[in-house]
TrEMBL record:
Pfam families: MIase. The lineage of its organism: Eukaryota, Metazoa, Chordata, Cephalochordata, Leptocardii. Residues 124-200 form the Muconolactone isomerase domain. InterPro entries: Dimeric_a/b-barrel, MLI_dom. This is Uncharacterized protein LOC118418826. It comes from Branchiostoma floridae. SUPFAM superfamilies: Dimeric alpha+beta barrel (SSF54909).
Length: 212
């Protein structure tokens, strides 16, 4: 089984207030608080941090050995006026390569890294939800195995970071693609889940920018 440090997907949504801090202060304060909190826990780290383009949202992937310790640190280091102005959603993650190997049976030794391919490109956040009405789980996994093999190839080239949400048929992706056309063509024409069961594979896509 995978021995990777537990990872979490955090999605922050901000609401500015005339009486409170501005949007920029909320976003920066949250990012700083998150970095400070993770630095105080065992093996804690912010792996990825992005802002959704033109929207009051931050997306972060963090790691920590102990969930209770991480929660305590996040509570002790809140963003400015955290309360009603900053809402957060947390999802437990499993590295996609571990799911591909241990559940789908893909033979791989690939290990996800924080590095991206060097050529320029636009970043995107993509959410994929998979249904399988009218087929067995075995049939779904046969198609998903083909999908995983294709996805791991993109990951090995440094253009994608993938996770499966624990206990859900949901995959979360951070992608770096040279153009929107390449991204659209990849999903619409190149991936087995979309080609063979596109009516049961639902996606949402957001352009994102690295937050520093």
């Amino acid at each position: 089984m995978s021995s990777t440090t537990p990872q979490y997907w955090l999605e922050y949504t901000f609401t500015a207030s005339e009486q409170g801090p501005g949007l920029n202060d909320l976003v920066r304060g949250t990012a700083d608080a998150l970095t400070k909190a993770t630095s105080t826990v065992d093996n804690g780290k912010v792996l990825f941090l992005f802002k959704v383009l033109a929207e009051p949202k931050l997306i972060a992937v963090v790691q920590a050995n102990d969930a209770a310790e991480l929660d305590a640190a996040l509570t002790a280091n809140p963003a400015p006026c955290f309360g009603q102005l900053v809402q957060v959603q947390c999802l437990p993650l499993r590295p996609y390569e571990a799911f591909a190997k241990e559940v789908l049976g893909v033979e791989t030794s690939f290990q996800q890294t924080e590095e991206w391919a060097s050529p320029p490109g636009q970043f995107y956040c993509v959410t994929v939800d998979v249904e399988y009405t009218g087929m067995t789980q075995e049939e779904l996994y046969q198609i998903w195995k083909q999908e995983a093999m294709a996805a791991l190839g993109v990951m090995e080239q440094g253009g994608a970071k993938l996770w499966k949400v624990v206990t859900e048929r949901k995959v979360l992706l951070l992608l770096k693609m040279p153009t929107p056309d390449v991204l659209d063509n990849t999903f619409m024409m190149g991936l087995p889940l979309f080609k063979q069961m596109g009516n049961q594979t639902h996606t949402a896509c957001k352009p994102i920018v690295p937050f520093k």
